[in-house]
């Protein structure tokens, strides 16, 4: 049997949801594998992975490090394609989702670079949960904003958060929204760290974006016969 690409990444998401998170699974009548870290007394689940206790801060750091490495080839390819610094793409991903490809915001932004449906459609993204599509679309959007604001990094980052219209209405300044006022320096702090060769960025963890308990949607992991 074979398991679709992304299985390891999904296990990482489950493990990262808590300092201790044993993984349970069962296969339904359609051959679909269901994973969770909270079986809730369901006897159909059986343990497939035991994870050791560790401090939450350690769990966060380990997950962030692995997640970053997982997407670097996609980030560098998209950055090269659109002429954007990989450090900037990493900075936006760090601030937007903490490298959580399954992140969904209350406003409906999805994936690593938190694309809203209109932006995703505009830049040819059909599946915002796909890391490759999301990174490609988000990087294309960043390149567009950098051109629109003549390479002004602060304004491009502000527009990524608040929209280019808000930046223009603010007289080509950072809009006076609390979220955007906090977002721009946060992204720029990540950007400087990545430019300077730090792989960690500021200590703002991915776990803040992830609910617990964590369940994996069955369509994400398929098992098929050889």
UniProtKB/TrEMBL annotation:
Enzyme class label: lyase
Gene Ontology CC terms, in alphabetical order: membrane
Lyase found in the keyword field: yes
Pfam families: DUF4124, SLT
Protein name per the record: Transglycosylase
Signal sequence segment: 1-21
EC number per UniProt: 4.2.2.-
Matches recorded under Gene3D superfamilies: 1.10.530.10
Organism: Acidithiobacillus thiooxidans ATCC 19377
Residues in DUF4124 domain copies: 10-61
Superkingdom field: Bacteria
A GO BP annotation: peptidoglycan metabolic process
InterPro entries associated with the record: DUF4124, Lysozyme-like_dom_sf, Transglyc_AS, Transglycosylase_SLT_dom_1
Encoding gene, per UniProt annotation: yomI
Keyword annotations: Lyase, Signal
Limits of the Transglycosylase SLT domain: 74-170
Family of this protein: Belongs to the transglycosylase Slt family.
Molecular function, one GO term: peptidoglycan lytic transglycosylase activity
